[in-house]
């Protein structure tokens, strides 16, 4: 049996290598415009050095499950999803005014400090914002460069392109609904789950699997694509529920984000929707007091953690995670995929939902 | 002879139609995630309704000049560049804190007002920023969706992809150098020209022509590609110099931007670099007083216009434009292109540099 840890690291190490090679090729293109591009290149390289490579792993196993042969080309194509993800994270951190990502300052904070340290003209914050917008854009556009230079045959890329396009439109739709929900949302579980469906579930698991299958020549509408949906949708929700729990209760050393960050940022997560629905009046008062408070400190974090846990919402989320992982793994049982892929995807389901960070 | 106006409108009307059809196809994909996506869709549709379609025109004539046949597929592929450009404009306006684009409020201002009018939670400005980041991202990603669904054969798209990738990396490199120049630049003509080369010249003219040629099967390194560079580089600089003049002296009814906007935003343009190099002390004092002043009003605009014109910088820029257009057109004379393309590109050179807005 593949262990959950091995299921992640096997693909991750190869994706890391592919990303390094791609970055090497782009370094020269960027620096041709001027040596001043180097800090920008180094910032995106630093960001890309981290990450669990979940989306590439699901794309890779979506391909292998459909009978696609192992080799560097599918790793390159799958690794391109990591560039899309990094670009989305840079822009997400900017929108959320997050200070930290993967244990380092977020890109806009890095360039804000860079500007401030040099006493340049204008506002350091505006400079940081501009750099994060541009470097995020660059990462998004690099997705296609790496995907199309992957070495996969033209016919495979042509079949994959519409899935990649759909995946991007869906994730931006999910982020849009999330932003709208934070401004004008009803805070219900239903709204939170719809954001999760678009922003996380489809984007992280279902579409990467579908992309791998399409690249391998599987037509839409068949049993394999349906099986990947049957696995991906419950697993994606379970993945996000784990993220929700880590966003309140996670250890910063593991998550790379400050403690209680989701509370501080006032995120409308499923965990918080359940907590609010179950809360007694005193518990609700504590949650409402701290939710969206940018000055939330360690004492406040401890208090809001106790209130949320006291509602039973964490236990309910853990039970939901367990049921959905079981459902996801069951969908693999009858799926027309290779035995090796079934084993790896089973291990990945555990790795994606039992993690600490 | 093709008139300059006709050279623009012939391709523009077909590009408009192609963009409408593409937007229609994406509307359903977006609204599948929720009806709440409609205002975002309408905002990008409104932005895409305007524009001179210069980049698609150069891509189209790059293809036709290389002997590519007319038809809807090349129009679709060329129109995809307008999605890239619209995405870059949305993010550019956000970075520059511009209020206006194509005669309408910029996207971040539209959504700021949308939020403020509904008295939602949080900051209207942060909501506007988030929406502009997301909708710009969506437009950037749609570039590839439209390009690959253009109907051009797979072999053509494979040849074009590296040029499209290079074009995007170059334009972001140019924007990065521009942002850096505004924070820490030396204000010299040399620095301003390098930003122009990457942010405008290659992006607006040279690479769209190269993309059209690559799609039509022309190998890099041949005489046609060199001729397009010989035409594109001087013309791109002339195009930007016209933009620089309009950015200080343009009529808002024609440019769709407020009067004197480049001065208000403290842009390091070639026109301003020349003006500063030529200025007497009193002229330099006027320019320095207003450059980057967000409160620049009509009286200040008139004063700074007089100071810049008084240096002779406008006349020098006009002479530079004239020389570069002549150089661009001369590069076409010996180019191995069709007569129809030579005539259209000659007319486009005039249309791109003699415009009022």
What does this structure look like?
The structure is a homodimer. Chain A is about 75% helix and about 0% strand. The first copy, chain A, is an all-alpha fold and about 350 residues long. Chain A has one domain: Farnesyl Diphosphate Synthase (Orthogonal Bundle). The first copy, chain A, has a two-stranded antiparallel ribbon. In chain A, a hairpin with a 2-residue loop joins strand 1 and strand 2 (about 105). In chain A, helix 3 packs across helix 8 (about 190-215) and helix 12 (about 270-280) crosses helix 15 (about 315-335). The longest helix of chain A has about 30 residues, at about 155-185. The first copy, chain A, starts with a helix and ends with a helix.
Shape of chain A: globular
Number of helices of chain A: 16
What's the architecture of chain A, going by CATH? Orthogonal Bundle
- What is the CATH H-level superfamily of chain A? Farnesyl Diphosphate Synthase
Q: Nearest-angstrom radius of gyration of chain A? A: 21 Å
Please indicate the count of domains of chain A: 1
* Strand line-up across the major sheet of chain A: 1-2
Oligomer: homodimer
CATH class of chain A: Mainly Alpha
Distance between the termini of chain A: 24 Å
Helix percent band of chain A: over 70%
Mean pLDDT over the residues of chain A: 94
Let me know the largest β-sheet of chain A.
2 strands, antiparallel
Number of DSSP E strands of chain A: 2
Could you tell me which chain pair has the largest interface and how many residues each side has?
A-B, 63 and 63 residues
Give, in order, the helices and strands of chain A.
Answer: HHHHEEHHHHHHHHHHHH
The CATH topology of chain A comes to Farnesyl Diphosphate Synthase
Query: Which ranges of chain A are low-confidence, i.e. pLDDT below 50, for 5 or more consecutive residues?
Result: none
Strand content of chain A: under 5%
Structural class of chain A: mainly alpha
């Amino acid at each position: 049996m593949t262990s959950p840890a091995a299921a992640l690291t096997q693909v991750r190490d190869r994706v890391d290598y592919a990303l390094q090679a791609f970055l090497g090729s782009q370094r020269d293109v960027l620096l041709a415009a001027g040596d001043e591009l180097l800090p920008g290149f180094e910032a995106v390289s630093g960001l890309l050095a981290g990450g669990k490579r979940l989306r590439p792993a699901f794309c890779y196993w979506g391909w292998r499950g459909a009978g696609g042969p192992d080799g560097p080309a599918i790793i390159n194509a799958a690794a391109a999803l990591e560039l899309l993800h990094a670009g989305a994270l840079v822009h997400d951190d900017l929108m959320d005014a997050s200070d930290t990502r993967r244990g380092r300052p977020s890109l806009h904070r890095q360039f804000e400090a860079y500007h401030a340290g040099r006493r340049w003209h204008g506002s350091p914050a505006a400079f940081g914002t501009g750099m994060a917008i541009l470097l995020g854009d660059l990462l998004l556009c690099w997705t296609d460069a790496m995907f199309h230079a992957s070495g996969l045959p033209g016919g495979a890329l042509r079949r994959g392109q519409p899935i990649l396009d759909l995946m991007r439109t869906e994730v931006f739709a999910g982020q849009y609904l999330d932003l709208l929900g934070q401004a004008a949302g009803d805070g219900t579980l239903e709204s939170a789950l719809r954001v999760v469906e678009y922003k996380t579930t489809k984007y992280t698991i279902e579409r990467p699997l579908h992309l791998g299958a399409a690249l391998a020549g599987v037509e839409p509408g068949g049993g394999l694509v349906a099986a990947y949906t049957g696995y991906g949708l419950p697993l994606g929700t379970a993945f996000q529920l784990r993220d929700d729990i880590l966003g309140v209760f996670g250890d910063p050393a593991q998550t790379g984000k400050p403690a209680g960050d989701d509370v501080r940022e006032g995120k409308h997560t499923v965990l918080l929707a359940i907590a609010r629905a179950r809360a007694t009046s005193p518990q609700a008062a504590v949650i409402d007091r701290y939710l969206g408070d940018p000055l939330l400190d360690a004492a406040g974090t401890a208090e809001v953690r106790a209130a949320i846990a006291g509602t039973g919402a964490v236990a309910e989320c853990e039970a939901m995670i367990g049921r959905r992982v079981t459902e996801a793994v069951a969908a693999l049982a009858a799926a027309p995929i290779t035995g090796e892929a079934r084993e790896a995807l089973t291990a990945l389901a555990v790795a994606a939902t039992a993690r600490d960070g």
